[in-house]
Amino acid sequence: MEYIDLESLSEKLDKDYKGVLALLQCPMCHSGALMVYIFSVDEDVGVIEDGLIVCKSCYRFYPIKSQCIVMLPDQVRLENPGIQKSHLEFLKKYQENLPYELLKKLRPYTLSEQ
Ligand SMILES: [Zn+2]
Question: Is 17 a domain residue?
């Protein structure tokens, strides 16, 4: 697992790609204070293959799946069971890579307690 602030993103990532990540804002609270968890990197092009962006302010999470950064607002996520299901499956797949305390706090939904 790699956890990093945007300021100190992995050396494996392309410089311009890091620049784009640094511009991202949480679509719900508009904070630019985001944490990025990297699960895998496509080193040929220097981008995150799979990862998770978490807003430090409101704890909403945004998956990076197959290099695609998915930053949808709550309304879309909560009204589309298919999106919610795929996000939860993604969290489940990588839950071992995330701190338990963080997992519990994620919004707008997170894995249910066992
Ligand atoms: Zn936020």
Answer: yes
Read off the tokens for 49.
């293959």
Q: Whole domain around residue 68: which residue ranges? A: 2-105
Counted domains in the chain: 1
Is 93 domain-assigned? yes
CA of 44 to the centre of ligand 1 (A): 31
Q: How far is the CA of 62 from the centre of ligand 1 (A)?
A: 10
> Which tokens go with 10?
């992995």
Decide: 71 and 27 in contact? Cβ < 8 Å. yes
Q: What is the pLDDT along the chain (114 residues), one digit of tens a residue?
A: 344 555 556 778 998 998 899 899 999 999 999 999 999 999 999 999 999 999 999 999 999 999 999 999 999 999 999 999 999 999 999 999 999 999 999 999 999 875
Tell whether 8 is covered by a domain: yes
State pTM to two decimals. 0.90
Question: Which residues have beta carbons under 5 A from ligand 1 (an ion)?
Answer: 26, 28-29, 31, 55, 57-58, 60
Residue 114 has a CB neighbour count (10 Å cut-off) of 3
